[in-house]
């Protein structure tokens, strides 16, 4: 019998998946809540607590580039990290395999029991830890979360390309091609491998065999129908959440009209919306899994049949109400944690807007013109980068290589200060020259703008570099208005010890775990590494917490809501505008921003 093609196969798969979704709706919802509840409120908190406890006993705050050698040299810390990693990978596999296994069981009209599903999924776990397991691991923790094509685990939802990496790459033509080419390749791989877990759940295939069969099955037309179904399901889920979000305007508006504020209504409504998003996102994963599984069975001529409707509907109304209550209860700890973190600061408007390399949308980065543009846009501070030239002078420049901005195949440390100042920098249609630190500080003082000076060692500094930087800052800024920061922890702590009256910050590019220990006045963490517990701990230690590089305005609003001490951003004017609207206290506008951000699932 001929294999159905194109629209016929997609239509049949859609019909079967919609029928199975409706017929077994409450069973799916129960399974999702139990699975997610176990993962997020039992398993992962216990594992995270274990990891923090062991790392703390070993004198290590978290996993980052600096601490990895210390972790590897400590058997206890290494074992804890390995246990955490293996358990996390297993949970991700079990979550995805559980969905695919249940879908096949329903399409085979089998009785779906907790014991039966767990036995089937557990039996497939050895595939993950076999010789071909790394292939599946890469698919689960990189291809799925980065492409958003298929069903990814909630445990990998935070896996993404850090904005500071993607933004830096896209500042050059070659980097832009590399970034988008890589993302396109990942999306293509995700489309070709979309049936992998369906094959793993339904056949005795190996990991490689399942991937190979998925690639064979996903011809060009099949890829198109899969994409259309995924986008359609995402739009439907987002529409449901948007309707719920619109309904939230009623209680928020009523409280604002009666009391002049709406903090209680906003908090409760957003908590309900968070719970709704939790449930809808889970059901979206179910819908996608059912379609992919049905499509797989149709294309391979595997029989599909469902249990009679009266056998499928065994969940009572009381059980449905219990499930709904549990959904809200599961979400409350996360909402309460976010509120608690925000309440440790003094109040709205405390977050400083720090212009990343000046205002680079109106001038060349790290130029005096970028400093002036940032001050004009309302930035509280301006971040800049300094390096040492061949003659020991300090110049304002981020890249060690001059090719990107100056078109010169040379390094900063190879040229003297006068030669560097003669170069013309070009970026986004603007031109500028490389300023010295002295020139930059002088102009900042004229504008009344505070600087956040990042010291970037290029590895070719002459001895006594830290002392010279400290002395130069003392000469240029005896009042100590300006901050200094660095990714080099020994360097910034030495500056702190040499000049304890100057404000300093330790910059962390990657941190998994607790707030890093540093003898500085502030910690600057990258957006991907931020956790509310870091803000709480920093304030308990009388340190400030900055987050970089926050260019998405929705993310900036989240950090403003939490009252972090500063956000380093390229979107200076937008961040200042959001902070100003928050200070005006328009509850409906504030709720609208937050609610529709939560409603966006695509």
UniProtKB/TrEMBL annotation:
Q: Which residues cross the membrane?
A: 25-44, 76-100, 136-157, 177-203, 224-252, 272-295, 316-333
Give the species this sequence originates from: Salininema proteolyticum
Record-given protein name: Glycerophosphoryl diester phosphodiesterase membrane domain-containing protein
Q: Which Gene3D superfamilies match?
A: Phosphatidylinositol (PI) phosphodiesterase (3.20.20.190)
Positions of the GP-PDE domain: 351-579
List UniProt keywords, sorted A-Z. Membrane, Transmembrane, Transmembrane helix
Spell out the PROSITE patterns in the cross-references. GP_PDE (PS51704)
Entry-linked Pfam families:
GDPD, GPDPase_memb
